[in-house]
Amino acid sequence: MAYVIGNECVSCGSCEPECPVNAISQGENIYEIDPEKCTDCGACAAVCPVECIKPGS
Predict the structure, then answer these.
(1) At residue 32, does pLDDT exceed 80?
(2) H/E element holding 47?
(3) Quick check: 33 and 4 in contact, CB under 8 A?
(4) Would you give the DSSP letter of residue 30?
(5) Which of 6, 19, 28, 39 has the least C-beta neighbours within 10 A?
(6) pTM of the complete model beyond 0.85
(7) In total, how many domains does the chain have?
């Protein structure tokens, strides 16, 4: 299950460099995670200052 970034995202960008598979990119309003690339490692969630990155359902 890929991680997802919620609407609480403040577009700080702290998650993007932490992703070992480059699954995170800047979207139109918030950062987005490509579910095809995400390996569920959780590195992005660990550095998110607003805790808006959660495992998908």
Answers:
(1) yes
(2) helix 43-47
(3) yes
(4) S
(5) 28
(6) yes
(7) 1
